[in-house]
Automatic annotation (TrEMBL):
Residues 348-457 form the Pyridine nucleotide-disulphide oxidoreductase dimerisation domain. One of its GO terms (cellular component) is cytoplasm. This is Dihydrolipoyl dehydrogenase. Disulfide bonds join 42-47. FAD binds at residues 51, 115, 144-146, 314, 320-323. It comes from Methylopila jiangsuensis. GO terms for molecular function: dihydrolipoyl dehydrogenase (NADH) activity; flavin adenine dinucleotide binding. Keywords: Disulfide bond, FAD, Flavoprotein, NAD, Nucleotide-binding, Oxidoreductase, Redox-active center. Residues 4-329 form the FAD/NAD(P)-binding domain. The keyword Protease does not apply.
Length: 467
C-alpha cells in the first residue's frame, strides 16, 4: 500500500498550493482530485474563465463605445461568441495544465477519483471507472472547496436557469438576463452579458449591493453600473420561475412581503452564494465535525476534530476566495513540516473584476463605527488623477481609513480603474503595520493610478495636493 506524509483531497487553489509547499519542505505528498483536471473551481469554472470573459467583453464594449471617441475607427465590432468561448477555454486549459506540470515537477503523486477518509491515516480513492484503492498517510488535508447554493423554486438546468458554471458557457447572448443576487458573481457575470448585449436586471434580497463591502463604495458602484444599463431591484426576492415558450416568467416579491410581480427573462442566473462541499468524504463516519453552516470545523490552526485531519479553503470558515485558500494551504503545509505557518485574516484583499473594479482590504467604515473605533478617512477621486484623466477612466475614488490616534491604516477601499491591482499596495502597507503617513510619504511614480492611493493617504490629514 502506497504511504505518504500528506494526502491532500482536492486540487483547487487551496489543495494544490498546499501540496506544492509541503513537497518543497521535503514531505512525501499525494493529491486526490475527482475532476479530470486540476485547479478546482477557481481554474475550471471560477476565477479564470470569468476573468477571461470579463477581459474580452470589456474590450468588445470599448471597441463599440470608446474607440471612436479616442480616434480609432474600426466600425461596429461583431461578436463571435463561439470564438470568445474558445479563447476563454484556452486560458482555462493553459492554467490547469500548468498545475499538472507543477505537481509533476514537485514529485507529487496525483490520483484521480473521489477521496474518502476511512479513518486515521487512511484515504480511499474511487476512480470514475475501476477499483477503489486505499492510500496510507500521516496527515490528510481536506481542500474540497464549495458548491453553488441552490434557491427553492429555481431548478438549475444550466441552460435557462443557470449557476455561474452555466453562465460561463451560454451558447447565445440572452435577450433578457435576470440575475438573482447582487454579490460578486452576479455583478461580474451580469457585466459580461450586458456588455455582449443582454438586458440585465439584478434582484437582490438586501437593500444594497455587495454586502460586506464599504457602503460608500457599494453606492457609488451601483450608480456606475446603472449608468452602464444594469437595472437593480433591491429589497426583493425571487420566489419561482415558470417556463413560458423559449423563456421564463419569474416571480419577484418584496423581501419584507407584499405584492408579487412577474418579470420576463430568457435566462436566470442564480448567484446567492456558495456552500461548503463535503459530500462523499465520509466525514460523519470518520468523526470529523461540521459547524452549523456545514463547514468543516477547525481549531484556528486548520486541525479538525480528528487527529491528523486538517482542512483549508472554501470548506472552512472565512471568505471564499482563492488567495485565502492558497495562503491557508501554505500555512498548513508549513505547520505540518514543523514550521510556524500563519494567515493574517485582517489583511485579505477582495476584488470585484468589473469596470470599474472594486477592491477592499481591512475594515470598512461600517465595521469601524460598529466597533466604536475612532478613525480618520481620506478620500481622493480618480477625476483628479492625471493618468485616469489621460486614459479617460475617471470613475470612482480611493478611501483610506486610519486610526484616529495612531494613524495606523485600518482599511482601504477603492472603486475605480485597476482597483484590483492598486489594492496590493494597501495590503502590503497594512501587513507591515504602516500609517497613512507612511503611504503619503512614499514616492509614487507619475503618472500612475497608484498616485490616487497616495493622495487619499494625504487626504487623511487634509493635505491632498491635487484636490
Ligand atoms: P476549490 O477550488 O473548490 O477546489 C476543490 C476541489 O476539490 C475541486 O476540484 C473538487 O472537484 C475537489 N473535490 C471535492 N470533493 C472531493 C473528493 N471527495 N475527492 C476528490 N476531490 C474532491 N475567488 C477569487 O479569489 N477571485 C476570483 O476572481 C474568483 N472568481 C470566482 C468566480 C466564480 C464564477 C466562482 C464560482 C468562484 C470564484 N472565486 C474567486 C472563488 C474561488 O473559486 C474559490 O474561493 C476557490 O476556488 C476555493 O479554493 P479551494 O481550494 O478551497 O476549493
Ligand atoms: P455573494 O455572497 O457574494 O452574494 C450573494 C448575494 O445574493 C448577496 O448579496 C445576498 O444578499 C444575495 N441573496 C441571497 N439570497 C437571495 C435571494 N433569495 N434573493 C435575492 N438575493 C439573495 O455570493 P456569490 O456572488 O454567489 O459568490 C459566491 C462566492 O464566490 C463569494 O463568496 C465570493 O467570495 C466568491 N467569488 C469571488 C469572486 C472574486 O473574488 N472576484 C468572483 C466570484 C465569486
Amino acid at each position: 500500500m502506497a504511504s505518504y506524509d500528506l494526502i491532500v483531497i482536492g486540487t483547487g487553489p487551496g489543495g494544490y498550493v498546499c501540496a506544492i509547499r509541503a513537497a518543497q519542505l521535503g514531505l512525501k505528498v499525494a493529491v486526490v482530485e475527482k475532476r479530470a483536471t486540476h485547479g478546482g473551481t477557481c481554474l475550471n469554472v471560477g476565477c479564470i474563465p470569468s476573468k477571461a470573459l470579463l477581459h474580452v467583453s470589456e474590450l468588445f464594449e470599448e471597441a463599440g463605445h470608446k474607440f471612436a471617441g479616442m480616434g480609432i475607427e474600426v466600425g461596429a465590432p461583431k461578436l463571435d461568441l463561439a470564438k470568445m468561448m474558445a479563447f476563454k477555454d484556452e486560458g482555462v486549459s493553459g492554467n490547469t495544465k500548468g498545475v499538472e506540470f507543477l505537481l509533476k515537477k514537485n514529485k507529487i503523486d496525483a490520483f484521480h477519483g473521489t477521496g474518502k477518509i476511512l479513518g486515521p491515516g487512511k484515504v480511499e480513492v474511487t476512480p470514475e471507472s475501476g477499483e477503489p484503492k486505499t492510500l496510507e498517510t500521516k496527515s490528510v488535508v481536506i481542500a474540497t472547496g464549495s458548491d453553488v447554493a441552490k434557491l427553492k423554486g429555481l431548478d438549475i438546468d444550466e441552460t435557462t436557469i443557470v449557476s455561474s458554471t452555466g453562465a460561463l458557457t451560454l451558447s447565445k447572448v440572452p435577450g433578457k438576463l435576470l440575475v438573482v443576487g447582487a454579490g460578486v458573481i452576479g455583478l461580474e457575470l451580469g457585466s459580461v452579458w450586458r456588455r455582449l448585449g443582454a438586458e440585465v436586471t439584478v434582484v437582490e434580497f438586501l437593500d444594497r449591493i455587495l454586502p460586506g463591502m464599504d457602503t460608500d463604495v457599494a453606492k457609488q458602484f451601483q450608480r456606475l453600473l446603472e449608468k452602464q444599463g444594469v437595472a437593480f431591484k433591491l429589497g426583493a426576492k425571487v420566489t419561482g420561475a415558470e417556463k413560458a415558450g423559449e423563456g421564463l416568467k419569474v416571480t419577484v416579491e418584496p423581501a419584507k412581503g407584499g405584492e408579487a410581480e412577474t418579470l420576463d427573462a430568457d435566462v436566470v442566473l442564480v448567484a446567492i452564494g456558495r456552500t461548503p462541499y463535503t459530500a462523499g468524504l465520509g466525514l460523519e463516519e470518520a468523526g470529523v465535525a461540521l459547524d452549523e453552516r456545514g463547514r468543516v470545523k477547525t481549531d484556528g490552526h486548520f486541525k479538525t476534530s480528528v487527529d491528523g485531519v486538517y482542512a483549508i479553503g472554501d470548506v472552512i470558515v472565512g471568505p471564499m476566495l482563492a488567495h485565502k485558500a492558497e495562503d491557508e494551504g501554505v500555512a498548513i503545509a508549513e505547520i505540518l513540516a514543523g514550521k510556524s505557518g500563519h494567515v493574517n485574516y485582517d489583511v485579505i484583499p477582495s476584488v470585484v473584476y468589473t469596470y470599474p473594479e472594486v477592491a477592499s482590504v481591512g475594515k470598512t467604515e461600517d465595521e469601524l463605527k460598529a466597533a466604536k473605533t475612532e478613525y480618520k478617512a481620506g478620500k481622493f477621486p480618480f477625476t483628479a488623477n492625471g493618468r485616469a484623466k489621460a486614459n479617460g477612466t475617471t470613475e470612482g475614488f480611493v478611501k483610506v481609513l486610519a486610526d484616529a490616534k495612531t494613524d495606523k491604516v485600518l482599511g482601504v477601499h477603492i472603486v475605480g480603474p485597476r482597483a484590483g491591482d492598486l489594492i496590493a499596495e494597501a495590503a502590503i502597507a497594512m501587513e507591515f503595520g504602516a500609517s497613512s503617513e507612511d503611504i503619503a510619504r512614499t514616492c509614487h511614480a507619475h503618472p500612475t493610478l497608484a498616485e490616487a492611493v497616495k493622495e487619499a493617504a494625504l487626504a487623511v490629514e487634509g493635505r491632498a495636493i491635487h484636490m
